[in-house]
Amino acid sequence: MKSVTLKDVAKAAGVSYATVSRALSGSPQIGSETRERIIKLCDEMGYTTNYVARSMVMKKTDLIGLVVPSIDNQFNSELAYYAEMSARSHGYNIMLCNSGPDMKQEKTVVKLLLGRQVDGILIVPQSPKTYENIRAYADQVPTVFLSENLRDQPQSYVAVDNSRGAYIGTKYLYELGHRDILYFGRRHSTTHQLRAEGYMKACQELGLRQRFFNSEFSHSSINNGYQLARDLFSKSLDYTAIFASTDSNALGIMKAADEMHIDIPNRLSLIGFDNITATGMPRIELTTIEQPKREMAVQAVDMLRDKIENGTQGYVHQILLPTLIKRGTCRPLG
Amino acid sequence: MKSVTLKDVAKAAGVSYATVSRALSGSPQIGSETRERIIKLCDEMGYTTNYVARSMVMKKTDLIGLVVPSIDNQFNSELAYYAEMSARSHGYNIMLCNSGPDMKQEKTVVKLLLGRQVDGILIVPQSPKTYENIRAYADQVPTVFLSENLRDQPQSYVAVDNSRGAYIGTKYLYELGHRDILYFGRRHSTTHQLRAEGYMKACQELGLRQRFFNSEFSHSSINNGYQLARDLFSKSLDYTAIFASTDSNALGIMKAADEMHIDIPNRLSLIGFDNITATGMPRIELTTIEQPKREMAVQAVDMLRDKIENGTQGYVHQILLPTLIKRGTCRPLG
DNA sequence: TTGAAAGCGCTAACAC
DNA sequence: GTGTTAGCGCTTTCAA
Questions:
Q1: Fewest 10 Å CB contacts: which of A95, B123, B276, B332?
Q2: Class in CATH terms, B6-49
Q3: Do A281 and B277 touch (CB under 8 A)?
């Protein structure tokens, strides 16, 4: 269990331990025969650099803190996957923290990450209030948010163009012949405000009446969507399509519609937002707007690296383009 | 960006920095007035312990390496969620690494984690060969596996009772009146071998004929299941139920059945294994065998802590009980 | 009860 | 090209 250190190798090689350090770091200040001999020896002795000692002197840990409300959520876990891969390919490792369920936890983990001396933090905020919540800490270390909720804050973030996503989705329904499109979802956060705006913009341009069915739930889930949709469907269906502001809600709508024998897509077209994995499953095949998770993660890591490595100041709002994923829940009208 | 250290606080308080350290660590060797004064000062100055420095002297990082083939997989991300929560509640943080797609990566990340001086490693192995692959490293630090594939190895693991899972699933189908049950899936790994054994045991006890449809794919996915099922369904259906060795395969089977107008559950009952999130989605409602992910994660963390904190030697194989989740894909016969 | 000092494993500046 | 040494921020003997 006792690991071999630079000193051990130095003694075995009969050189000073600075020399071993040089050999390993690829310094030019060393004879190539010595270097090779030492490298070989390190290998034989099973030496591995102690990163905590190195971090100590370098004042850099090559560690990125990743904070998500909960990793047990398809959207977050996809982001995490790409973020970890990308980070590691650049020599960084990921320290993972779930920030849920409350704001207190979120603050706690960010603080903790700071104590761990992470070089930067990547955070999927819990709520629009997250920025204020963790501000005192986020100012002490390079931080990049993954959400458009920060829109008016002097903070870097990467996000999909939520407004445009709703816009293209609505337009798609229009092109399919739909003229009565209901927007279903909450509008509490900036993200959802923007989605609603995209819908409104499309309606204005296309001469459609705007119709909203608002959720008061603070959190979007299949079950919320389901409860709400049961209410909705108990009244007359004077619309032919629903734009759901999240896939979770759309899935809940689908469940309620099935139970109440409302045929999707023949009686009602349905489109979601996010493109979570479940939407592509057999029998579901939900048409939706894709958030480019991979690109978001990669860009966020790059942005963070730029801050860390080049000390880039200021902030940037990086907006990526959403795409329409056509599947089976929308039908042409007429 | 410059953080405040013990020395800064000591200077401000007019004491030696050893005293500040004592105040913070709750040592009894200090006057209570001094302690309070110092703690207050630390708070005011925004002091946070530098964990890398502490780790250096303590020779302990309070870090657990979590290695999963890919966090972008519902099963792994659920495990990760519970593992992180549990670990953090005990003062540990999680360093996350994706080990996929090949064995080389897996070895690389484990090595890397060792360099990071993690106190222990939690690993969901990629394959039955993982143990041999990382053995040289796993011997150097407390390690717990999350999979039954290690069955014959002197290594600690936590896993569900795979054999029993298949047994209760098969028995359930029998009780529903099914007498011709097909087992669908691969048998390359110990995990899958055990599942097949559970099925065989049930068949023997119940006097059922054993019928297998083997997958040669090394990796279970919806698409593999789908391809295979199309083949399967092109021949006559001389069975009334299928036990799929994984939910992914079951989902693929469902897709193929839908396309070929084989009614599930009326013409064919279907049961899966794992209880991944998608199985509970509307329209899918797959009956399946649940792996208790939360309990697995918590137990694995506890086991690891025991090794780390008490230096417990040897190994333990912790087998948890699976449960049957009845949903909509199995129907009584006759 | 408090201070002084050693040392964790490493990098880098400075000698030779 | 190689050795010596200081020091990163902290915990913990050992003295006082």
A1: B332
A2: mainly alpha
A3: no
Within 8 A by CB and 6+ apart from A14, the residues are none
pTM across the whole model: 0.94
pLDDT for the residue B239: 97
Is A61-160+293-320 in the same CATH topology as A6-49?
Answer: no
Topology adopted by domain B162-291: Rossmann fold (3.40.50)
Nearest to A254 among B85, B222, B282 (CB): B282
Q: What is the pLDDT of residues B3-55, one digit of tens each?
A: 899 999 999 999 998 999 999 988 888 888 888 999 999 999 999 999 999 99
Structure tokens at A261: 């024998």
pLDDT in tens, B68-100: 999 998 899 999 999 999 999 999 999 999 998
Q: Which of A244-253, B18-27, B118-127, B190-199 has the lowest mean pLDDT?
A: B18-27
- Give CATH for domain B61-160+293-320: 3.40.50.2300
Number of Cβ atoms within 10 Å of the Cβ of A182: 19
What are the DSSP calls for B230-244, one per residue?
Answer: HHHHHS----SEEEE
- B87 contacts: CB under 8 Å, gap ≥ 6: B64, B93, B94, B301
Q: Burial level of B334, CB count in 10 A (0-12/13-18/19+)? A: exposed
| Sequence ranges of the domains in chain B | 6-49, 61-160+293-320, 162-291
Please report residues contacting nucleic strand C, using a CB cutoff of 7 A: A 5-7, 17-18, 21, 24-25, 49-50, 53-54, 56-58; B 14-19, 22, 29-31, 34-35, 56-57, 59
